Backbone:
């Protein structure tokens, strides 16, 4: 049976009535013991009889055609084959559900996957891939720099409301600036890997992917086979951050080679290949304009951006996503211009849009506050709109003011001084603040919940846990709803044969997959209530005992066998009628070296309003992740493309600087008590990307407060600070 | 080439291609996949193991260089249901998210605590001759060779602090 809900209206707060106490508890992850003992099995760690090893071959030119000469390597030890069929240009975009570009013999960027070399062992395959002769016919019209001579695709539907130019001209105070951010790489610790195995027409793919419900279609479409013949297994995923939203190139390469050889083939991407063939976050150039009256009330906002991608990707970084809803001001203008370049494809990296857009917007707000002469928190609070400032819909809930004000209190914001006023030895000390906002999304989702008479339960969905805590929270939701301890619930994830969840991405996992589990368990509660002879709203379940209508029976007496229900959630009217967003405030205290310009983040606070918090331990880890990614975007991360070839020069973890342990000061996280009734039947909102939105801007605003240097070009490496120090 | 490694107390004879790294010998030849391959370049620390008691990146060394050596991997510390103090503390403090860097973090912590116990100074130690204290800053510095993109660093540090005594920080205690 299926318990279905289309989210057309507010649902009762059932999770505030249940009494098990499994939810809202800081439960450690149930899969933790497997992870800390190295016994959780990631994609590359499966072994199959007769398995061969593949190594990807990358294009050595920027644009043109190629032809491989397999005879150049066929005498090498262990050689099994070199395959170019159906090779995809780059990983699929998130939620594509169809094949990425399959360019045949065309090369469109340096590093593009063009073949896979397969041999008996990994070492043999790697040597063959490196020795393979490839003949190139280069084109002379490659374009790799986002400059004026590039071809841009403009968003012709960009909003232009009121008259921003007039608002800027009439403003008491205004800011008009250009910001730049460099490309970012997700840099998940586990490289993409696939083990492909055919059984007749049936393909089983063990891979590291975030969204099996889309990935199975992407794989089938790329191979030209029926999706019914594809099974994808990703029970453990070593980080994703957007890079595993879409099927990666080695999925197709392994499947093609396995088919040709009649044996399983494993292909693991080399770290360089991860940097080149998997979508990265585009570089951006952003013009932000703010205008306000003498008191600091905004009259206009402009946010225009320039970015880059390969042709035919159909994805653009939504740089202005949060700008649309965060602050009022009647005159508003946006614009998006995507340069078509011969460089690795751009796509989703954690918090696409806000991760970079909020850097510029929140820096501009800091600059404006200084011009008006008011506290940056006051400026933000003053400009919180009553309704969405463009489409007029009401907010489902709005925690920004509470986050800013309660956060300020906890952080000790009142101790903040004027720029350069606080110095300890050779270090300037400063504080900064920024708002956070991340649109809340709900996706269609299914999950099967089975309750057994012995008081154990099973949750099954093709949803993934990429470190986000899915195993923990889905078990907790089922346990809470069914009135059993969380350790009695087994959660099965990451198998595309299970009911279709929403996939991990867009911060919608907990809300969507969680609601499907909630509904499945709700269906079971109805049946238990029937058997107990009470109404579903009278039923109370705790520690394996059902109570209701003057009856009290253990589950074992009430059930003659397992009860299984599928929960099915669909987004509905509340999605259209309300603007749903998580909100938050980031605070940072930094030290800037007065001689070298080196920045150290001493402490940060994230105050988050994201609806009901299911598990404060895993939610806190998600926010820590956001804060530390904020440190990376603010201070250390940036891909450098060779301006001659587009080559990713820093294509490894030594040269692309993700924050390390010592880069991170003391982190504090607080959650504002909130229920978002319009969001879903559990009143939760996404948290994984909210924690990053604005975090970097709080750091650069703190840099200004410390040393008086405004950084508008990210990352704020010392060379961008020390020349401007007194 | 024929070699014998003593892995987690057990002698394991291997016949390996000289190109096989110590990491791949463990993962592919001995099926000990707890040691992870994150970069294969010594940049991320996910493959950290103990070699004759000291922490190294197993991807940066060839298996044939280690005939007769003693190796401890994450599988040698504890198993589900029988976790070592560090492993249990990582679970309790959410010192991970995706879990991929975790075995390397734990092996690195194990080696790091031994180094601290022996009085080795670090870049952040105030004095090169004193036995350094197990401060948060010392932990951060000494664990900075182990990347965690999920960014569980606060939980990792807390787990190490919680488990340090049980892991045998004897000299430090004696000095106090």
Residues:
């Amino acid at each position: 049976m299926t318990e279905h809900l289309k989210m057309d209206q507010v649902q009762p707060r059932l999770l505030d009535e249940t009494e098990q106490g499994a939810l809202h508890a800081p439960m450690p992850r149930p899969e933790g013991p497997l992870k800390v003992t190295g016994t959780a099995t990631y994609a590359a760690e499966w072994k199959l009889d007769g398995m061969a090893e593949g190594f990807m071959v990358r294009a050595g030119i920027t644009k043109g055609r190629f032809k491989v000469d397999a005879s150049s390597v066929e005498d090498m030890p262990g050689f099994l084959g070199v395959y170019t069929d159906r090779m995809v240009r780059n990983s699929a975009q998130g939620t594509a559900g169809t094949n990425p570009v399959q360019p045949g013999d065309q090369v469109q960027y340096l590093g593009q996957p063009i073949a896979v070399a397969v041999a008996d062992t990994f070492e043999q395959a790697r040597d063959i891939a490196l020795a393979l002769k490839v003949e190139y016919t280069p084109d002379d019209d490659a374009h790799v720099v986002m400059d004026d001579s590039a071809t841009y695709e403009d968003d012709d539907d960009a909003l232009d409301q009121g008259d921003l130019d007039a608002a800027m001209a009439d403003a008491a105070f205004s800011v008009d600036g250009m910001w730049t951010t460099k490309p970012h790489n997700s840099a998940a610790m586990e490289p993409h890997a696939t083990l492909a195995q055919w059984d007749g027409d049936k393909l089983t793919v063990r891979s590291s992917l975030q969204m099996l419900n889309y990935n199975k279609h992407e794989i089938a479409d790329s191979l030209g086979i029926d999706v019914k013949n594809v099974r994808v297994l990703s029970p453990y995923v070593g980080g994703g951050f957007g890079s595993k939203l879409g099927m990666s190139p080695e999925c197709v390469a392994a499947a093609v080679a396995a088919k040709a050889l009649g044996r399983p083939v494993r292909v693991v991407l080399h770290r360089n290949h991860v940097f080149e063939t998997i979508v990265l976050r585009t570089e951006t150039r952003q013009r932000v304009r703010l205008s306000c009256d003498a008191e600091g009330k905004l009259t206009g906002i402009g946010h225009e951006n320039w970015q880059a991608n390969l042709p035919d990707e159909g994805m653009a970084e939504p740089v202005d996503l949060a700008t649309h809803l965060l602050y009022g001001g009647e005159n508003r203008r946006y614009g998006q211009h995507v340069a078509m370049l011969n460089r690795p494809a751009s796509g989703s990296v954690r918090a696409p849009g806000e991760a970079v857009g909020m850097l510029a917007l929140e820096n501009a707000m800091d600059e404006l506050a200084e011009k008006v002469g008011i506290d940056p928190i006051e400026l933000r609070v003053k400009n919180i709109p009553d309704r969405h400032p463009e489409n007029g819909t009401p907010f489902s809930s709005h925690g920004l003011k509470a986050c800013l004000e309660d956060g300020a209190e906890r952080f000790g914001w009142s101790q903040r001084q004027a720029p350069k006023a606080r110095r300890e030895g050779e270090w300037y000390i400063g504080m900064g603040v920024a708002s956070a906002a991340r649109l809340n999304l709900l996706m269609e989702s299914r999950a099967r919940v089975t309750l057994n008479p012995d008081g154990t339960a099973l949750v099954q969905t093709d949803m993934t846990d990429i470190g986000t805590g899915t195993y923990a929270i889905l078990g907790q939701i089922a346990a809470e709803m069914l009135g059993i301890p969380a350790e009695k619930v087994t959660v099965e994830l990451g198998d595309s044969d299970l009911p279709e969840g929403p996939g991990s991405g867009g911060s919608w996992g907990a809300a969507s997959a969680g609601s499907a589990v909630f509904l499945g368990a709700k269906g079971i509660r109805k049946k238990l209530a029937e058997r107990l002879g009470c109404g579903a709203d009278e039923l109370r379940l705790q520690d394996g005992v059902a109570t209701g209508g003057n009856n009290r029976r253990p589950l074992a007496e009430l059930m003659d066998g397992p009860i299984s229900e599928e929960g099915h959630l669909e987004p509905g009217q509340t999605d259209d009628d309300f603007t749903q967003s998580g909100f938050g405030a980031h605070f940072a205290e930094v030290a800037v070296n007065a001689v070298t310009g080196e920045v150290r983040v001493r402490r940060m606070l994230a105050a988050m309003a994201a609806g009901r918090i299911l598990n404060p331990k895993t939610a806190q880890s998600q926010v820590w992740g956001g804060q530390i990614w904020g440190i990376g975007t603010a201070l250390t991360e940036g891909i450098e493309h060779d301006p001659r070839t587009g080559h990713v020069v820093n294509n490894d973890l030594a040269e692309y600087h993700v924050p390390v342990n010592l880069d991170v000061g003391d982190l504090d996280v607080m959650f504002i008590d909130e229920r978002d009734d319009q969001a879903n039947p559990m009143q939760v909102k996404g948290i994984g990307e909210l924690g990053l939105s604005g975090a970097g801007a709080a750091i650069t605003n703190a840099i200004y407060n410390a040393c008086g240097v405004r950084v508008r070009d990210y990352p704020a490496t010392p060379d961008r600070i020390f020349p401007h120090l007194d | 080439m024929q070699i014998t490694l003593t892995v987690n107390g057990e002698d394991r004879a291997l016949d390996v291609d000289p190109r096989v790294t110590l990491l791949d010998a463990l993962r592919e030849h001995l099926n000990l996949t707890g040691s992870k391959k994150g970069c294969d370049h010594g940049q991320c620390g996910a493959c950290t193991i103990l070699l004759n008691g000291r922490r190294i990146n197993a991807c940066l060394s060839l298996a044939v260089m280690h005939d007769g050596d003693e190796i401890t991997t994450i599988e040698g510390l504890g198993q589900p249901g029988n976790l070592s103090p560090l492993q249990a503390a990582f679970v309790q403090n959410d010192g991970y998210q995706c879990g991929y860097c975790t075995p390397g973090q734990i092996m690195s912590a194990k080696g790091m605590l031994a180094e601290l116990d022996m009085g080795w100074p670090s870049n952040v130690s105030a004095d090169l001759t004193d036995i350094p204290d197990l401060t948060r800053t010392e932990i951060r510095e000494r664990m900075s060779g182990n990347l965690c993109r999920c960014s569980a660093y606060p939980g990792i540090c807390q787990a190490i602090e919680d488990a340090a005594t049980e892991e045998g920080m004897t000299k430090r205690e004696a000095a106090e």
About this structure: The CA atoms of residues 26 and 32 of chain B lie 5 Å apart. Strands of chain B lie at 2-7, 10-15, 48-51, 54-57, 70-72. Chain B touches chain A through 64 residues (CB under 8 Å).
